[in-house]
Design brief:
This protein is of the alpha+beta class. The protein is 33% helix and 33% strand. The longest helix is centred in the N-terminal third of the chain and has 22 residues, at 14-35.
Length: 193
């Protein structure tokens, strides 16, 4: 029954279903008109009422048996790249992430890419467990990484790229590859983390 209802209410099959329903009603109406003198088969209005009742029952059964689709809807805001003044090899990242969906998001890794798409990966795994962002949960991410390629992530070259409208990006991803990428619109330097 479920397969039939899925087929019946599939938008791709709408033309076929409409053709079948209209053909059925016309056929029954014609049969009622021609045979009506011998057997009382009811009027065309009664046939339309019966088809409408059957369709209403089928729709209500389908809606009652169908489950709400689970989805993840991530949003990143206030993303900023941070440089530590007294440590030229330190790069930090801060941002806020919000899951507006109705399914928890398994957060596996965070990657920041500079203007030339060379990236840094921040692991978000706690041992063997992934971090989870529940539906309607807001999480602030704040992490620092010590890197040796100063020339790629130095403040001056990134600031120059900012002035040209080329921004680094932050990507949050999970095992299902259902993450999100956002521009890092702020760059700042601090004396200490």
């Amino acid at each position: 029954m479920r397969k039939f209802l899925n087929w019946l209410f599939n938008p791709e099959k709408a033309g076929q279903v409409s053709f079948l329903i209209v053909g059925f009603v016309i056929g029954m109406g014609a049969m009622s008109f021609y045979i009506g003198t011998m057997i009382d088969t009811g009027s065309l209005a009664e046939w339309f009422g019966a088809v409408g009742t059957i369709a209403a029952v089928a729709v209500s059964l389908y809606l009652a048996s169908s489950k709400e689709k689970k989805y993840v809807d991530l949003h990143i805001s206030s993303a900023s790249l941070i440089y530590i003044n007294n440590d030229p090899t330190a790069v930090g990242i801060e941002f806020v992430i919000y899951n507006a969906g109705n399914k928890p998001f398994a957060w596996a890794k965070t990657t920041i890419n500079n203007f030339s798409n060379m990236g840094l990966k921040f692991s978000t795994e706690d041992g063997k467990n992934l971090s989870l962002i529940a539906p309607n949960e807001i999480v602030k991410f704040r992490e620092i990484m010590y890197v040796s390629f100063d020339g790629i992530w130095d403040y001056k070259s990134n600031d120059e790229a900012f002035r040209k409208g080329i921004y680094p990006t932050v990507t949050v991803d999970g095992p299902e590859k259902n993450g999100i990428t956002a521009d890092i619109l702020k760059i700042s330097s601090r004396i200490k983390w």
